[in-house]
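=== RUN LOG ===
request id: a7f3
mode: sequence -> structure
chains: 1
length: 324
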Amino acid sequence: MRQLSRGATTLAFALWLVSANAFAQTNPVGTSGTSDPVQRLWSDPAPIAARDLFWGAGSELRVPKPPFTYVEEKTGGTQAKIVVTDASGTTWDVKFGHEAHAEVAASRFVHALGYMTEESYFIAAGQVNGARGLKRAADHVSPSGLFTRARFTRRDPTVVRIDENWTFHDNPFLGNKELSGLLILMTMLNNWDIRGDANNDVVRATLLDGTQERRYRVSDLGATFGRMGGLISARSKWNLADYKAEGFIEKVEDGIVHLDYDGLDSKMDRVPLEHARWFASLVSQLTPEQVRRAFQAAGATPEEVEGFSARFLEKVAQLSSVTR
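=== RESULT ===
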């Protein structure tokens, strides 16, 4: 990346922040005009320490219930996916492989800290009835329908995806601390697969009182807990050694926190110190047991639970230290 002088970098960032804050004041998080739906990136998750990171946005009562019946195979994206219904008639999107672990664990932290995510569960093994003619999914589902390591995401009939995407540089929340917090969280998770408008979506959610919200989400969290990589080193997902080796914060200079973000969007590496301080006040409320529960929910081995948890908590401590 071409380096600017420190003075030029600071001036450019300050001009961006003034402009972004002016825009954000007319599009604040969780509010809207009289007729448009609320635009929401974040909701206050308090009290964070009381949240159960094993179940995340779901609950024990809503876990996918066998038998599972095959509906179709999904061909979009790069991972093998199918659609099934369960014994209660609920429809689920099912993803296989390493991303199943990573996505479930990442979703637990996203939800716990107040950001928008889907209800998902890790299913270690099961069987799908009626699965025939599979293509990519054939590597994960046997001829008799047996599968292992799957992420089940519930299709919520009250949430409809809008034909619209957003980026970290083009959205209604520019200049808001909540957006900066999400950027920090993506760095903590080592989510390297964020580029342009890929893997970010907008959904319309209908609440119990009939009102609607436009929710802005990072919709694919599978490329997490590995190596973010760069020009030389290969990227990875759900790899404990790689996750432990990645950096987090490079420095704090002139009121700006420089993140060690090496994902596909190289411009996601700076946030205002005040925004980082606000996010640190949230994430530091997570207890070690809550963090371990998130990885247990993702089907991690005991070694992975302890290793991933320790490194995540190290990042929390580092963020708290540099924002004091």
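=== NOTES ===
The mean pLDDT is 89.
Residues 60-154 form one domain.
=== END ===
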